[in-house]
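for the recovery benchmark. tokens below, seq after
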């Protein structure tokens, strides 16, 4: 189990990026992490991975996250963590050597699915293909917790939709996905739980099954949590129209 207790993170001269966030992620879940730009989604993931200093406590199976157990976590990010001058085949060999739980068959199957070349330097691929490869590495590492931060920037909707279906088919019961994305409606059929950050605070945590029983979809849940004002567009247009009339 991955546990976060009272996590706070601040940047010099700015408001808190995270403020008193507590949550648990058991094994075997697909969790959506949602929030507006600047809500703290990326910061939260980087705190879990030990890439940021923070206040509070994060434990993995009851132990602090250190070099001894960091291999249980993997990360797919559009910032990229691969070696651009190496080929996919060289990455496969490197991961197989350094991660005892590396899933070679999964790597090969996902490479075929995305139709990516094995013997071309990753840095020469398109941005969309690089993002696909980043996801392949995260899923093939053999980690128990796979963190994905906007992993499919630059990919078309059909590729994304097909991938989510593949993802449901390949995950094993002990694997957990934490997926940060703005594409709420697109992933609503694939996530089982929704976490909602707002200005660094965890403002909502619900299972999609519970929402379904209440007759709510994911978008409705998010709008209610954010207290979204449906008439905000009309108000803005009205003010603009008034300004034009005065001119």
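predicted aa per position
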């Amino acid at each position: 189990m991955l546990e976060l207790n009272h996590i706070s993170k601040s940047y010099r001269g700015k408001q808190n990026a995270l403020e008193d966030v507590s949550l648990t992620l058991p094994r075997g879940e697909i969790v959506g992490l949602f929030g507006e730009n600047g809500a703290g989604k990326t910061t939260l993931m980087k705190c879990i991975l030990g890439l940021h200093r923070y206040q509070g406590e994060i434990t993995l199976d009851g132990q602090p996250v250190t070099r001894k157990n960091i291999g249980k976590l993997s990360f797919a990010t559009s910032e990229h963590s691969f070696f651009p001058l190496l080929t996919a085949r060289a990455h496969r060999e490197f991961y197989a050597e350094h991660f005892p739980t590396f899933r070679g068959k999964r790597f090969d199957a996902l490479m075929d699915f995305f139709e990516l070349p094995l013997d071309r330097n990753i840095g020469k691929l398109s941005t969309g293909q690089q993002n696909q490869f980043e996801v392949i590495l995260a899923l093939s590492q053999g980690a128990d917790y796979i963190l994905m931060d906007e992993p499919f920037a630059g990919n078309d909707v059909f590729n994304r939709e097909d991938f989510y279906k593949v993802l449901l088919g390949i995950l094993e019961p002990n694997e957990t996905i934490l997926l940060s994305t703005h594409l709420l409606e697109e992933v609503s059929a694939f996530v089982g739980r929704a976490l909602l950050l707002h200005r660094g605070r965890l403002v909502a945590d619900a299972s999609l099954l519970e929402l379904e029983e209440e007759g709510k979809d994911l978008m409705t849940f998010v709008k209610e949590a954010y207290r979204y004002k449906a008439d905000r567009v009309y108000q803005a247009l009205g003010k603009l129209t008034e300004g034009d009339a005065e001119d």
